[in-house]
Amino acid sequence: MISEKRSTWALTGSLRGRLALLVTVLVVSAALATVLLVMDAAHGHRTTTERQLYGTARALSLAADGEVGKLEAVLRVLAVSPELQAGQLDAFERQARAVDLGPDTWLVLVDANGSQLINTRLARGAPLPANADPGFAARWANLKVKGRGISDLATGRVYPGKILAVDILVRRGGQPAYDLAAITTPAVLQAVLDKQGLTKGWYGALLDNKGIFIARNVDPAHTVGHPAPARMRERLRHSSHGTFQSVSLDGHETLASYNRSSVTGWTMSVAMPRSEGVGYANRNLLLTLTAAGALLMIGTAIAFMLARGATGAMERLEIAAEALGRGELIEIEPARIDEIDSVAAALSRAAKDLRAREADLRELNETLEARVEDATEKLVQAQKLEAMGRLTGGVAHDFNNLLTAILGNLSLLTKRLNDPTLSQYASNAAEAAHKGARLTAQLLAFARKQRLAPEPVDVNGVITGMAELLAGAVGGRVKVETRLAPLAGLAQADRTQLELIILNLAINARDAMPDGGRLTVETGRRTITTIARAAEDPPPGDYVMVAVSDTGEGMTAEVRDRVFEPFFTTKDVGRGSGLGMSQLLGVAKQLGGGVAIETELGKGSTIRVFLPPATAAQTEAADAAGSRSPALSILAGRRVLLVDDDASVRDIAVGLLADAGMTPIQAASGAEALEKLESGALADIALLDFAMPGLNGAETAARIHELRPGLPVVMMSGYVDANTLGQRWAGPLISKPFTAETLTAELARALGV
């Protein structure tokens, strides 16, 4: 018994035994510490993975919300359409069919009884569904309360497959009148999901409020329209977001996260293979335990030889594990012990994998957020531009009516003045009114509400006439120089647009020279022989060139490549819309020319606009039109049916017509004009304002032609959208403000002179 005790003591009391015990303790301690650290890292990895999954689900949900938001924005614009508010459904249907929502989306207008009035998926004039949708009553009640609605997946009545609907309540006179809906197929949202590019092996799905698949990135053909697993639907009923372990439809264990949208009520679910989120940590833990056991056996066998080295190696592993816990990249010096080096390599790989996954997650989130931010910014910019166009159009209508009255009265006054001084005053006032009319035309052109009117234009004359305007626009710190080539010739261009282009380029040049500098406007003739490579390049041919140069900051290559993108600007928020250069390119291309840019950072920029030269035939036609003098004697004694809702415009037109020897028959509306014709009033020609309450000019003209076939009609317009006017009237048109000469000449031409 004593011998056995001494033998045990000798084993533990010897240096080899103590070293073996020391190594054993260190190995066991290090193994336990490593296990705890790996478990902590696994927990951190699980937390990071769950956060990544939830962030991805939320980002995808925002992308789906954005698609629905675009449809809702279109519906809100159409809901306030004047044609719809006026109950002009034929005109509104044309407007609705002109909206391009893609092949898988169409518009439906339903009345308060559930009867379809318009369905753009069907051919115009095709029979509409006879009976109301059985669920319409509930949907209509919800619309009257909330003003909007988004449906779950349903079976279409006209479309044979599954559909989704975004509804907007349309009110007329403050009362609910229609249900305006955008109907789309799951393919649209499937495309949104597919664009996100989920990692291979991941699952993404969009479900409606009932847990029915709307879109799925894996096998959508057999899952869309079918309910999700019961366990998942039960979870969705109890919470709007969360993360849980699940099993995919094809039997793979997954870690899934979901988020329900507050906008649509739909749920976006994203799942990754469980092996990526949990299996990784389990493998590291198993590897750590295995290495610890091996180290324990080896340390015990060769304690004296490896005790010191193993201790140092374990200390280095401990430091590396702490760095791993802080998310740092680690490099561990080899200990020349396979097991310890294996653990070190595993920790290094784990650190790199964690860093790479964090970078991937940041990149994915940044990309999705950037897409949402970019789409939102463009939508806001488009809404700003549309609002500006509406405001400009409204101001232009009233302002041009005022200018019509001013110019007409000045014209009548000039004819009756014998005092040269007073006549000069009246002439100066008329010139100021004409400048106001040109300013209004420029505002309409900037808001893209006016059609181009190409004519032979003397570019040198335009620039000379803008000298004072350019000097005022760039300020006193910028010196303006002109280099006008005597043989530049005439360009086939729109004068108003050309003036606006030169002014915009001058303002851009001024902003590029905050400390002052030199602005040069140059003209000349150029021949292009090279084939156009970029979208802005002019095709080969002869051109009249207008160039604007500055000595400012110049552009970087990145700015130069994006300068023609709509809404792109380098100016501070509120100082530029980002549409000037894209508008310049659009005008130049529409005229058949192009644009070239030369720039160097720190040395300024030169922007050349190439316009087609006016041909001899175009110049002769313009000269002939300008010199053609209608035989105004034919107007004497003619009876003119004058229709305008603006009393001041009507009064001055009466004066101008009477001054030309004509007999005006006044009417303040289209309905009043028709009543006079039906009562037997005789007229030789009709002069109608286009924009009037009730019957507009085009509608009044159509009724006049029914009552008096062959009666000439001339239209007046202070402002109307170019597309709207082109669709409704193709006859003679006088733009307000007009002079007595313009009015009488157009009436004489309409009467056949």
The named CATH superfamily of the domain at 451-619: Histidine kinase-like ATPase, C-terminal domain
Looking at the overall shape, the CATH architecture of the domain at 451-619 is 2-Layer Sandwich
Beta-strand residue percentage:
15-25%
Total count of strands = 23
Head-to-tail CA distance between termini:
143 Å
**Low-pLDDT stretches:** 1-16
Describe the global form.
Answer: flat
Helix count from the secondary structure assignment: 23
Proportion in helices: 40-55%
CA radius of gyration is 39 Å
What structural category characterises the helix and strand content? Answer: alpha+beta
Identify the CATH class of the domain at 451-619: Alpha Beta
> Looking at CATH, which topology of the domain at 451-619 would you report?
Heat Shock Protein 90
Main β-sheet, in a few words? 6 strands, antiparallel
On the 0-100 scale, what is the average pLDDT?
79
